[in-house]
Amino acid sequence: MEVENKASEAKRASKILSILNEEIKNLALVNMADALINNIPDIIKANEKDVSNAKKRNIKESLIDRLKLDEKRIISMATGLREISALQDPVGELEGMIKRPNGLLIGKMRVPIGVIGIIYESRPNVTADAIGLCIKSGNSVVLRGGSDAINSNIAIASVLADAAYKSGIPEGAINLIENTDRNEVNIMMKLNGQIDLIIPRGGSDLINNVIKNSTVPVIETGVGNCHIFIDKSAKLKSATEIVINAKVQRPGVCNAVETVLIHKDIANTILPDLVEKLISYGVEVRGCEKTKSICPDVKIAQESDWETEFLDLILAVKVVENFDEALIHIDKYSTGHSESIITEDYNNALRFLKSVDSAAVYVNASTRFTDGSEFGFGAEIGISTQKIHARGPMGLKELTTYKYVILGSGQIRK
Amino acid sequence: MEVENKASEAKRASKILSILNEEIKNLALVNMADALINNIPDIIKANEKDVSNAKKRNIKESLIDRLKLDEKRIISMATGLREISALQDPVGELEGMIKRPNGLLIGKMRVPIGVIGIIYESRPNVTADAIGLCIKSGNSVVLRGGSDAINSNIAIASVLADAAYKSGIPEGAINLIENTDRNEVNIMMKLNGQIDLIIPRGGSDLINNVIKNSTVPVIETGVGNCHIFIDKSAKLKSATEIVINAKVQRPGVCNAVETVLIHKDIANTILPDLVEKLISYGVEVRGCEKTKSICPDVKIAQESDWETEFLDLILAVKVVENFDEALIHIDKYSTGHSESIITEDYNNALRFLKSVDSAAVYVNASTRFTDGSEFGFGAEIGISTQKIHARGPMGLKELTTYKYVILGSGQIRK
Q: How far apart are CA A328 and CA A27, in angstroms?
């Protein structure tokens, strides 16, 4: 199968790539960015095929938005690669060197993970980001994109691989599985020894399938049923602005808010204006009984609404009795992505930060900031919503691991 | 099933334990250590049942050594708990707080993982170490020990849980599966949402079974096919001492050396004395053709000898043409645990450190130091031989994860 051959080439290349000079990697990334810009017409042409196929299959607008590439988005992919080139390379750094009583010097050296497999859906910009971050962090990459974006992905990956290999990156380091047969994925998930880590990016069905079937270690990413809790001491204007921003600025992404919880003492004051503004932005509000009693225009929320990542202009709203009810609701329904409290109360802010068990916990800010660029990583390979290895936006450092290096002078164990 | 009930109790307890005051955890650990000492006769009695059962089944001596508890080993378990009590608690620490251009303050807060599942074989001291490390790091624990040690494990876990709960640790935080039915493990490995991480400790069959069947994230531990490479510039006396120490000081453990590679330029000089000393310690040497030509007494090594973790007084020895052949041999046969180079050559030392892809890479020291206590962690939950989350000895910090905390003042995304 294609994936076995490519993974095995990737493993071979990774041994050279893992100790490759940083300057070669940086120059390659700049050349890859230039190559994207030089091939904009071809990439858009390939993308148009994908978009037209998607339209024929009546795929919803927010997904077509994810799929679509224009000049601006391709330039932004290239800018991402240049930013990655400028970031500090973590590979080879020594951390926490200590001296033991027997004279042994023990420290951690940052090293690449090896071969990273990425299984993802529509967004073709993932192709460029993933390749850039893997190469800079010294990892080979095996990409399996969605069939929706296959033409865009092949165009992007071949432009990037070509530029990378011409710049001294070992051949075989960059791989895209072109065969869209499902069986390729099934084999990919069992390639222990060839692939060191699989990162799925996409909807919950894709992610659950990978978790269930992969024997290669997996980092769960991206499903974001995100919450904002408006505490009774919240500033009304700021709370409204943050909710509107978190819902409407880009509703199709995982860090958009899906449920707003409102303290009952402030519900009457904030809800009429907030709901009116949301509706004016085209948001469908689904509220609890109390929300409906204050704003008769809203739909009544079903149990499923508390569980759903809408990825659309839909927002669930619930009035809660107190802080504890908000925490319990979040604990029950959150996918562990991003949650924010809007409050002026110091103790409630601290308690929210301590108690909420999500990758990103905010005070007085929009959940939309959970993003590699916004966190200063340049680009991200995904947003981890599990607890092992890395949590939240995963940048360069999260694509490395460490090994212990021990410098001795003849020590033996007594 | 027992494991489902216990995992669900563990999850409930973990929400309290995760934010529990450090002083309560520390006092509990001291009380747990005292309880072990106060119950030495009962624990030894339970252990004697296990040892006598093992002897009836003709289990090999090195495994009985792992299983056996005496007063000294129980005192050492208690000392381990006191050491853990004295270590700094990583939970709640804030790391790497940065200010973004928009004024957001973003940092990482260390938090417990949640519920840790441990699946392990003979050694009953794992029971105390695992409970101590999990409690101190704010994690609930679900232990599934081998049936060989079931009586010892029940005795130790019940003494510790009792002392812990009396000291303020939430009930349900410490769990040992008493039912030795295999089906309990099968269910345990699918308890996503209840158990956050499974750490298998034991032989390669056990570990491979967990990797293959667990949908809960797994950290591979412990299989150690460890190598020592004696470079041509090695000091002979020191090289011999290190090899003897790494092989005979405790042959039944994962950081003992299993294969020694010797540069051909030094083979004639070192081998006769080294092999004589090894044999005098009762070691069976299995050598390559060249080793045999220098030391006619050794057995000829088979291909399987390069692949085997003997866990016994057996050592494979190979003469290599050069540094590269040593690296290629290690890359092919190593399980990624611990490898050491004995050399006086600065560049070879640096190249070995950089190129060998194992959890612990040594210069001029015995591989036997790959151990939580020797690295200064107090005790270890296992030695990770995979690349995700943690590598090498896993202490307190490796049993935590982080979440991003973001302090805002009304920021929205443009």
A: 50
Architecture label for domain A2-219+394-407: 3-Layer(aba) Sandwich (3.40)
ipTM at complex level: 0.90
Burial class, A111, CB count within 10 angstroms (exposed 0-12 / middle 13-18 / buried 19+): buried
Structural domain boundaries in chain A? 2-219+394-407, 226-369
CB proximity under 8 Å: B 326-365 to A: 331, 353-355, 357-365
Helix and strand totals (H; E) in chain A = 15, 16
Helix, strand, coil % (nearest 5) of chain B? 45, 20, 35
Spell out the alpha helix ranges (H) of A259-364: 264-280, 289-294, 303-307, 323-333, 346-355
A411/B contact by beta carbon, under 8 A: yes
CA distance A386 to B113: 9
Which fold does the domain B226-369 belong to in CATH? Aldehyde Dehydrogenase; Chain A, domain 2 (3.40.309)
CB atoms near residue A57 (< 10 Å): 7
**From CA B386, how far away is CA B220, in angstroms rounded?**
6
Report the predicted TM-score, pTM, of the whole model to 2 decimal places.
0.90
Q: Residue for token digits 């099933």?
A: B1
Predicted pLDDT of residue B176: 98
- Determine, for residues B357 and A217 on separate chains, whether the beta-carbon distance falls below 8 Å: no
Angle CA A139–A143–A149, to nearest 5:
145
A66-115, pLDDT tens digit by residue? Answer: 899 999 999 999 999 999 999 989 999 999 999 999 999 999 999 999 99
